[in-house]
DNA sequence: CTTTGGGCCTGGACGC
DNA sequence: TGCGTCCAGGCCCAAA
């Protein structure tokens, strides 16, 4: 699934169920996802208590009272489902790979058809140095993210701004959908070079990124193929997309003649689809 | 150093 | 109905 709002939606579902509870049992139905589970994975987790469920970029972080941290990525197609105590847990299907059984009876199930997700272990006191996390840029919804910070991270980059926004070293958690949406909100062309973003555009972009991510979180994320909340509910922010997946349509702020202009354009950048309005975005 | 392209997987949509 | 092709929210790594 998953860009930042979808992962945050899952985090918010997991936190009240997992925090303060012991993990009584871990079931792995295969030995790897995108990469193998680390050695001793189950053993290091079982019996530990979850202190907090946090998030960094698109990674969920289960902080355990042993000092270990479960680093959990949902990949492209990962879904998390919570079954409350007493609720029937359906028989495992083909792509149900992991289960966490919790003290007091809840079950957390991870389903990931494409297996681009992963689970790893890190240590709380050196978590920032972990290979998966050490190069990740500022969290967009934290106070470490600002126009000067963004502009500095874009300076000297020869790539297009759209591709720069999807580089986790520039800003954490922005993927293909929200990169297009944020650029639309900021009225910046996705083709513009990253280095040409000055103070004014950087400020607009920061506002746009924060705005679109916050709105998406409030809506429970976006559901294209398979994102669900941990209750199995659909997120509905996809209905608020201005440009993503709407080629040929009029953008929300356009008063132009779509029959003439062709409306929202769909181009490919770095092998990924980009949607934008050439008249509104410069 | 930065940037590009291929690869990892499965499933669904589409054209014939 | 079946088959082939293309595409999909992410990320790593080798190569240029």
In terms of topology, how is this protein built?
Blueprint: H1 4-18, E1 23-28, H2 41-45, E2 50-56, E3 59-64, E4 68-73, E5 79-83, E6 96-102, E7 107-111, E8 118-123, H3 147-154, H4 161-165, H5 176-186, H6 199-218, H7 258-261, E9 265-269, E10 272-276
Helix pairs in contact: 1-6, 3-6, 5-6
The protein binds a DNA duplex (16 and 16 nucleotides) through helix 5.
Mind explaining what this structure looks like?
This protein is α+β, with helices and mostly antiparallel strands and 282 residues long. It has seven helices and ten strands. The strands form three sheets. Strands 1-6-7-5 form a four-stranded antiparallel sheet, covered by helices on one side. A four-stranded antiparallel sheet has the order 2-3-4-8. The chain has a two-stranded antiparallel ribbon with strand order 9-10. Helix 1 crosses helix 6 and helix 3 packs across helix 6. The longest helix has 20 residues. The protein is globular, with a radius of gyration of 20 Å. The model has no long low-confidence stretch (mean pLDDT 94).
